[in-house]
Write a structure and sequence with these properties.
The complex is a heterotrimer of chains A (494), B (160) and C (116).
Chain A: H1 7-22, H2 27-55, E1 58-61, E2 72-75, H3 77-100, H4 107-126, H5 130-148, H6 154-185, H7 190-197, H8 202-220, H9 228-235, H10 238-264, H11 271-291, H12 296-317, H13 319-351, H14 362-365, H15 367-381, H16 387-401, H17 405-429, H18 444-459, H19 468-471, H20 473-481
Antiparallel strand pairs in A: 1-2
Chain B: H1 8-30, H2 39-57, H3 59-65, H4 68-88, H5 114-137, E1 139-144, E2 147-152
Antiparallel strand pairs in B: 1-2
Helix pairs in contact in B: 1-2, 2-3, 2-5, 4-5
Chain C: H1 2-20, H2 24-45, H3 62-68, H4 72-103
Classes of the chains: A mainly alpha (494), B mainly alpha (160), C mainly alpha (116).
Chain lengths: 494, 160, 116
């Protein structure tokens, strides 16, 4: 059974090259193959997730080499939540892109690169070794640069150029930190480093932690490092924007930041204060910048910066409530931001533009798209039944309990700003009255993923119901609160 | 064909050197598990041989020896082969498990699946890098009266 | 110690190329230099002065080998990192060609349609 944890990576890599080899002429068949491979991966990730949530973590030794020598792969409740979310969102995005990518040429190559990106993302989640995380991180990143530039329009190329150069600086920082870790401790395994870390001098620790933090904060687009995100996420094709904004920056950035703050640098709790600072800055800055945007995709991109800021704030506060808030906010935001980007993609598919001025009164011409879009907007803005409301509430309560009252007030203000700009956008784009509208709805294959995601946005708060919460989120929170895998015996699989 | 590419001296030297470059690349790949080298470096050397031909003789000649479509297929096949070797390990209990007999140290057939992996990686790197350089080489800058223009030519026969 | 300072010098040379230069090709060269600097640092951390290659032949006593051989793991890791740098540079070169096609220039100051 433990082979299941390696399968998401193996399936995606195999799928990528099989599609490139067999179906490079046939767009329909390659799309169908891509969907079936992603579906297979969803099933494996859910089965292994159920195993992890009932029986605890799974360790896997690649090549049969045991822990001090070989590369250890691990699936614990925290990474299992991210793994299941990645695959589910990838499945919906893949369903959507079979229709959406018809207007692009070379669709089979799109699926190939998309699969390589998913393999990288899944690989980050199952790695327990810092260099392994770095390699999969680069695999996913390089695939994402190509996907951002996939349309080959001038703006997309420019955005991809900025994104690539910024990412290169981030990955150099990370590589330097890895080199220093290996030089100082002689190991790259996360539990082994944790036991060695207390022997390092604080200067060295701070230097390594600073390099790691700035590298991964750049990939998460926390505010001093955010400049690439609005360009890259607003210019990419809609399904790519959806997966980049909804899942990619959270796996590549947020997940690794969670591992770094709560697991790797456990001896250095002060780095949470830095994260808190970055989080507050990006929350406020992203919210304010989103207010004045004329292009809807750009507005959503700034909104992503602001919402990821909430996650960083929760991570900076820490404690049970802070960690729970991070996880819940990540799940709710992943669903709703994917929904919004897919939605604007469907509008672009029919109307051919994403500017606010040219899109007005869509309710009369595209009622279903309007319904799903406004669900997503209300979800991100944090209107009560949706998951985002509860997650923001948890983060605010955590801030008050930890004594950061000012930050709690800022969180509330930013939530109100978010509600403000989404309501403004909704009123002009969706519900403004226009004369003699032409009724033309998006194709059904674009509507189905949006509908399913809208439903998930609506019910994602169910994870916080007592009884379900103990079985799922609480186990992941306990990984973030007390990570104690140093007692793993050699030859043990659990 | 003769008036394309570089001068006759370069072509003559390239024709002589090319087999030796291929031979060196292959030996780097095949002896990767017992001496320095391996799939990646050997593959890069193999690509280097084809790039030499590309510089000396022009695109048409090289694409007749190794068409880009075949190189793309070899690229995917190399990756799939490497994945298959990794998945074979499931038979003996673990991903990437080295299930072949290890043989004697310092003999060509030693270290089990490592040599197969090296061959697959060499195939993948050589053909993948060749495709990348071939695609880059299809770009053309044309000097006109208004300034420099850009042209991408996928059909190589056209740009006489 | 002096080698580490030289590595730092190399790193900052590359960083200067990335940040201060406007030509895309020079930025790519800067990226190459930064990549080499980080790889060199990694190699140096596993190096032993007057060490031998980490290949265990039959005529080398095992104790001498353990004492003298350089650490092979950073070299294996750096090989991976070189591949990643290669991917970056190849992608950026392709991107530079495409950017030239669209904008007619390699100057980053003139490639500036996105703002806000």
């Amino acid at each position: 059974m433990s082979h299941l944890i390696i399968l998401p990576v193996a399936i995606y890599l195999g799928a990528a090259f099989l599609i490139a080899l067999l179906y490079k002429k046939d767009e329909k068949l390659s799309g169908a193959a891509a969907i079936s491979f992603v579906f297979l991966s969803v099933i494996t990730s859910i089965i292994s997730g159920i195993d992890v949530f009932t029986n605890g973590k799974i360790l896997y030794f690649a090549g049969g080499w045991e822990r001090p020598l070989g590369i250890v792969l691990m699936l614990d409740p925290l990474s299992s939540i991210f793994l299941i979310m990645t695959n589910i969102i990838a499945f919906f995005v893949m369903l959507y892109s079979t229709v959406y990518m018809e207007k692009y040429t070379w669709a089979p190559y799109f699926y190939t690169i998309f699969m390589i990106m998913l393999a990288g993302m899944n690989g980050i989640l199952i790695s327990m070794d810092i260099f392994n995380i770095y390699v999969f991180f680069e695999v996913a990143s390089i695939a994402s640069f190509i996907l951002v530039a996939f349309g080959l329009r001038a703006e997309e190329l420019e955005a991809s150029m900025k994104y690539t150069v910024m990412s290169f600086i981030a990955s150099t920082m990370i590589l330097f930190a890895i080199a220093l870790i290996y030089g100082f401790t002689g190991t790259l395994n996360i539990p082994a480093f944790m036991s060695e870390a207390s022997g390092l001098s604080p200067v060295h620790l701070w230097f390594i932690a600073g390099l790691f933090l700035s590298g991964f904060a750049l990939k998460t687009a926390l505010v001093p490092f955010h400049t690439w995100l609005p360009d890259a996420h607003s210019m990419a094709p809609a399904p790519i924007s959806a997966i980049l904004s909804g899942m990619f920056i959270k796996v590549v950035g947020l997940y690794v930041l969670i591992r770094i703050t709560t697991n790797i640098f456990i001896v250095l709790p002060q780095i949470r204060i830095l994260l808190l600072l970055f989080g507050v800055l990006s929350m406020v800055f992203g919210g304010l910048m989103a207010y004045g945007q004329k292009n809807i995709k750009r507005l959503y991109a700034y909104s992503t910066i602001s919402q990821v800021g909430y996650c960083a704030v929760g991570l900076g506060i820490g404690g049970y409530l802070g960690s729970l808030g991070v996880l819940m906010h990540f799940i709710a935001h992943a669903f709703s931001k994917t929904l919004l980007f897919l939605n604007i993609g469907a509008i672009e598919y029919i109307k051919g533009t994403t500017e606010v001025e040219q899109l007005q009164g869509l309710n009369d011409s595209m009622p279903a798209t309007t319904l799903f879009g406004s669900t997503g907007m209300l979800g991100i803005a944090g209107v009560p039944p949706m998951g985002n409301f509860w997650s923001k509430l948890i983060i605010i309560i955590a801030a008050v309990k930890a004594g950061y009252t000012g930050i709690a007030v800022l969180c509330i203000i930013v939530a109100i700003i978010t509600l403000g700009y989404f309501l403004k956008l909704q009123r002009t784009v969706y519900y403004k009255k226009v004369e003699n509208p032409v009724k033309k709805e998006a194709p059904k294959m674009l509507l189905f993923p949006m509908g399913a995601l809208a439903l998930l946005v609506f019910i994602s708060g169910i994870l916080l119901v007592p009884g379900i919460k103990e079985k799922t989120l609480d186990k992941a929170v306990s990984v973030m609160e007390n990570f104690s895998y140093m007692d793993i015996k050699i030859g043990e699989n659990r | 064909m003769n008036n394309k590419g570089m001068s006759e001296i370069v072509k003559g030297i390239a024709r002589i050197v090319f087999p030796f470059i291929l031979l060196y690349g292959l030996s780097l790949i095949l002896y990767g598990h017992i001496t320095p080298g391996g799939g990646f470096s050997g593959g890069v050397v193999l690509t280097g041989g084809f790039v030499l031909l590309l510089l000396a003789f022009g695109k048409d000649y090289v694409f007749r020896i190794l068409p880009v479509d075949i190189a793309k297929a070899l690229d995917s096949a190399g990756a799939l082969g490497f994945l298959a070797i990794a998945l074979l390990g499931f038979l003996c209990g673990s991903f990437f498990y080295n299930l072949l007999p290890k043989g004697y140290i310092f003999h060509l057939w030693s270290a089990g699946t490592i040599i197969l992996s090296n061959i697959m990686i060499g195939l993948k790197i050589a053909s993948g890098l060749f495709v990348a350089i071939a695609v880059l080489s299809m770009a053309r800058l044309i000097h006109t009266k208004e300034g420099i223009k850009y042209k991408q030519s996928r059909k190589t026969e056209e740009d006489q | 110690m002096i080698v580490y300072i030289l590595v730092a010098l190399m790193f900052f040379t590359g960083l200067y190329g990335i940040i201060a230069k406007k030509n895309i090709i020079k930025i790519i060269v800067g990226i190459n230099i930064v990549g080499y600097a980080s790889n060199l640092l990694f190699i140096l951390l596993g190096y032993k002065w007057e060490g031998i290659a980490p290949i265990l032949t039959e005529d080398i006593p095992i104790n001498y080998f353990v004492e003298k051989a350089v650490d092979p793991l950073p070299q294996a890791l750096v090989l991976t990192s070189i591949v990643i740098d290669l991917a970056f540079v190849a992608f950026l070169a392709a991107l530079a060609i495409r950017l030239f096609e669209r904008y007619g220039t390699f100057d980053m100051d003139k490639i500036r349609r996105l703002k806000g």
